[in-house]
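User: Second chain of the day. Same drill as before.
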Amino acid sequence: MFLDVKNLTFAFGQTVLFENLNMSIEAGSFTAILGPSGKGKTTLLRCLAGLEKPVSGSIVLDGNTLTSDEIHIEPHARKVGLLFQDYALFPHMSVADNIGYGVRKEDKAFKKMIVNELLGMMDLKDFHHRKPSQCSGGQQQRIAIARALASQPKVLCLDEPFSNLDQELKERMRGLMKVWFKQKGVTVIMVTHDVDDAKAMADTIVELK
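Assistant: Same format as last time:
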C-alpha cells in the first residue's frame, strides 16, 4: 500500500484524540476523513505532515517510514503537502510569489516553469501580480492549492478546504479540484465534517468516531 498508518495514537496530556488508528491508502486515490469537531481530524493531518508527533504508531509512505517510535522525519523532507483551512497565504507576496514559495528547488528556470504551469492550471495568469487581499475567496483557495502542488508532494492533505466558500463556488471548486488532482496524480486526504463534500470528492471515506 502507498500510505500505511498503523496503530497511531495521539493525545494532549490525558485527552486522547484517537487511539490505535489504522488506515491504508492507494496511490492516486482521494480519501475523505469524516468526523465531528474534537475527534482529531486536523491533528491526524498534522501528524502525516510531520507537524505533530504521535504518542505511538507508525506512518509509512511509499516504503519510507516517516514516523515510528524511533523515527520522526521533519516536515520539509516528507513530500507531504498540507493546505490549511485559512489558506495561510503571505499577504505581502504576489500570487506568483506565493505559488513560487512552494517550489523546493532553487533553480530559477525550474521555479518559473512550475509557477507558470500552475498559474495556467488554476486560471490565475491574469492575477499573477496581485496580492491575496485583492483576490476573491475562490481565487485565494486556488492560490493555496497551487502553492501546495508546487512542492510536488506525494500526498496532499486538505483541512476543510470548502469551509470559506459559498455553496455555488463550493460545487464548482469540487469539480475542478478532482480534475486537477487526477492530472497531477497526487494522493489526496481531505478532512471534513460535511458528508456531501466527502461523497462528491472521495474514492474512500473514513469516519473518526
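The two ends are 24 Å apart (CA to CA).

User: Great, on to the next one.
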